């Protein structure tokens, strides 16, 4: 439930801190990206889920209208929205000050010859002044710092860094930072429950594989531009069965031994129909009863089908009916 009273204007001094505060508003609202988009539209704003994901995934100052749309959708009072907008304008003004100051401090071009104030190379008709060279060097150093700071920061600081770091071309398990956080928020907005903590761990890998399978992409567990493009298109994915529905279906299907059916499925997948486990040899196991790649091939089904809870339970029932027990799965009872 939205607690608008808590969405007070933060003490943000930089664009990055401002965006972090907006992320916090979104998280505390409890709304998905789709829900925020629908609420914003109802309030007369335009805020597609992809635009929202992009805005919250960067550390640059967002547009004023998108800030207003997000806050309005999350139930922030009008008076507080005005103060948010005022803060954004203050930050924007501060960001513009260095450029103006530099322009004012740059001396006018001299008409007298000053051999040591410029650098001229043979054949170069455009000499570069010392102040210009200094600005170029500072800009290059700032760019290098922005590209490397995400890798150098400790885990707890990487996700909230105010520097606008460029995301790698491929995201994979073991990475950490704002780019992974953006990915996780996009997955969550698509209906795939995943920890939104900025760490690309096994849970995120599982969800990436499930997403790739369901939208027909190559199943790799890594995230490249085609995956991000698919997420930006706001794909319509099958509704994930909640745990109580899974439990009821298991008990009905395995009426002869309902408690054991639930226990085994919980042991294998945590009753998560979209759970995908990657084995040490690179093979994968799919869904509630963790059917292997080889088992899917033998049954003539694809990975998308394997993630369908109804199919997975029916296939497990078929195995159980032939063996008479759950010995096919290695899931010993808890001591």
TrEMBL record:
<dbReference type="InterPro" id="IPR036365">
    <property type="entry name" value="PGBD-like_sf"/>
</dbReference>
<feature type="region of interest" description="Disordered">
    <location>
        <begin position="96"/>
        <end position="131"/>
    </location>
</feature>
<dbReference type="InterPro" id="IPR036366">
    <property type="entry name" value="PGBDSf"/>
</dbReference>
<feature type="domain" description="Peptidoglycan binding-like">
    <location>
        <begin position="179"/>
        <end position="231"/>
    </location>
</feature>
<dbReference type="Pfam" id="PF01471">
    <property type="entry name" value="PG_binding_1"/>
</dbReference>
<dbReference type="Pfam" id="PF13560">
    <property type="entry name" value="HTH_31"/>
</dbReference>
<dbReference type="InterPro" id="IPR002477">
    <property type="entry name" value="Peptidoglycan-bd-like"/>
</dbReference>
<protein>
    <submittedName>
        <fullName>Putative peptidoglycan binding protein</fullName>
    </submittedName>
</protein>
<dbReference type="InterPro" id="IPR023346">
    <property type="entry name" value="Lysozyme-like_dom_sf"/>
</dbReference>
């Amino acid at each position: 439930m939205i607690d608008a009273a808590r969405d007070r204007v933060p003490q943000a001094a930089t664009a990055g801190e401002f965006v972090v505060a907006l992320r916090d508003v979104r998280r505390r609202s409890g709304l998905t990206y789709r829900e925020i988009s629908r609420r914003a539209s109802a309030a007369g704003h335009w805020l597609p889920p992809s635009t929202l994901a992009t805005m919250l995934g960067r550390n640059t100052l967002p547009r004023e209208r998108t800030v207003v749309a997000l806050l309005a959708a999350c139930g922030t009072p009008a008076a507080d929205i005005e103060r948010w907008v005022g803060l954004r304008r203050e930050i924007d003004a501060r960001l513009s000050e260095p450029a103006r100051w530099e322009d004012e401090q740059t001396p006018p071009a001299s008409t007298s010859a000053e051999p040591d104030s410029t650098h001229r190379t043979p054949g170069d008709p455009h000499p570069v002044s010392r102040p210009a060279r200094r600005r170029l060097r500072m800009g290059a150093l700032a760019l290098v710092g922005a590209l490397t700071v995400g890798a150098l920061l400790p885990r707890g600081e990487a996700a909230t860094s105010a520097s606008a770091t460029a995301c790698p071309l491929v995201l994979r398990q073991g990475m950490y930072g704002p780019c992974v956080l953006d990915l996780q928020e996009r997955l969550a907005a698509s209906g795939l429950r995943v920890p939104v903590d900025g760490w690309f761990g096994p849970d995120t890998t599982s969800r990436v594989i499930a997403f790739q399978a369901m939208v027909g992409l190559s199943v790799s567990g890594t995230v490249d531009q085609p995956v991000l493009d698919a997420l930006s298109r706001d794909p319509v994915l099958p509704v994930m069965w909640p745990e109580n529905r899974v439990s009821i279906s298991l008990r009905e299907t395995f009426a002869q031994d309902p408690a054991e059916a639930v226990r085994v499925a919980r042991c294998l997948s945590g009753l998560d129909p979209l759970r995908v486990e990657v084995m040490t040899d690179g093979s994968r196991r799919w869904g509630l009863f963790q059917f292997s790649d080889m088992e899917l091939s033998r049954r003539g089904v694809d990975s998308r089908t394997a993630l369908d809870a109804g199919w997975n339970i029916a296939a497990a029932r078929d195995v159980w009916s032939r063996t008479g027990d759950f010995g096919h799965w290695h899931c010993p009872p808890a001591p």
